[in-house]
Amino acid sequence: MKKKFLIVVVSFVILFLSINYFNLRITGLVSSDVSVSIKERTIGEVLFNYTYMIDMADVQDIFLEFINTGTTSYTAQMREFIYLYGEGGLILKANYFDSIVSLTPGDRRSFITHFSPPQTGLYYIKVNVPYDARVIETWGVFYVTSIEYPEINITPPTIPAGVGVGGGLLPIRPIIDFIPNITLVLDYPKEIHLRPGKSTLLGIKATNFGNISLHDVRIYISAPNLIDFEVYPKQIASLSVNDSVTFLLSIDTKENIPYGSYPIDFKITCEETEKFGSITMNIVSYYIPPEQEVRERILNYEYLITELEREISSAYSKGVNVTKAEIHLERARINVEAAKEFFNLKNYDKANEKLDEAEEDLKKAVFELANAALEIYIPPAFSPILILIIGIVMGIIFVFILESHKKKKKKRPKLLRAVEEEIET
Questions:
Q1: CATH assignment, 27-161
Q2: What's the pLDDT at 87?
Q3: Peptide linkage before 233 cis (omega within 30 of 0)
């Protein structure tokens, strides 16, 4: 009897630990851990948590934490911006700048902000943390709706005109009955050369070569504080098998940036995996002919246009409304063709003007494409593995209860058992 009791207790302990373990994993918490090679072991990590969908009557609680996970001390400041997506792009609705704090190795700084949405729609959260000689940045996205939706088969919330939710439902990850192959491959320039005060547009392509879709795909950037950068799109809901997403990284260097090599570290992360990369930015002192600069920009933008055409075509085949993305991509193509004409006339200033216009349209194209296909990923309350563990534990408990019941029946007097069997028949 003691052995049975012990087995049942152990089973419940396993069940309790399993539930707590998986609940800790399913929190919607995202993190960034980007190493910096300018100073050895100068590392910062951002923890960022919020609710993916709220009602107009609710308050969005945003948790932010920055941790010095390196071996050097430095100062850091957490900055948070909340934007509403509309016809004019991203409209700033709120911001918060934390105080500048000194962090020794292992120290952390955290706070919670409370945002009351002024209207329904699609909102973006930008988290920006300058630390040491670096800046780390990432984005999040959430919906504000005026209707209470059931837990499953949720109708898409009210969002700005022209932004569709692919599939019509908020996706819940399906139960996987096979061993998943999660393969995220990155393609990006490993090295770039710029003069002080110059700018460039880089493409970071992520392709899903696995056998399951990837969810909540976003990018973290850690770059020197002597450059200004922006990334497009901010986040995509999912990346299907054999599909790609191109993140455009816009870089503007400052006039006073010293010559030398600077790492731009980044991480592509999703619910299933993460992948690190680094681009070496060389600030050079030698003269770069305008002809060479313009030619390289034209080739780069033509490549990006080709990649975005594929992504738009793939999204269209899935039923996504890609009209806005197509309009901006077509404008970019027209401006690149105009730049080529000015290049042939050796009018490099006009060519650069047209390429600047093309750059803006490329950014808008990838941003609108991401918004058109955006879905909010809601993790299931219990993972398939946890359900299996619960089933096994409950099965063990059931078997022992059944065996105990049978043995009790056998210990009853023969006359009583005979009477019970007579009644049952």
A1: 2.60.40.10
A2: 75
A3: yes
pLDDT digits (tens, 9 = 90+) for 310-329: 999 988 888 888 899 999 99
* Among 32, 124, 47, 120, residue whose Cα is nearest residue 81: 124
**Cα Rg, the chain, nearest whole Å:** 28
Both tokens of 75, joined, read 């100062």
- If one counts every other C-beta atom within 10 angstroms of the C-beta of residue 375, the result is 20
The full set of domain ranges for the chain reads 2-15+382-424, 27-161
Exposure b/e, 48-65, CB count within 10 A at least 16 = b: bbbeebbbeeeebebebb
Lowest-confidence region among 43-52, 215-224, 247-256: 43-52
Contact at 8 Å (CB) between 194 and 329? no
Q: What is the pLDDT of residues 7-56, one digit of tens each?
A: 555 555 555 554 444 433 323 333 444 444 444 567 788 888 888 888 88
362 contacts 304 by C-beta, under 8 angstroms? yes
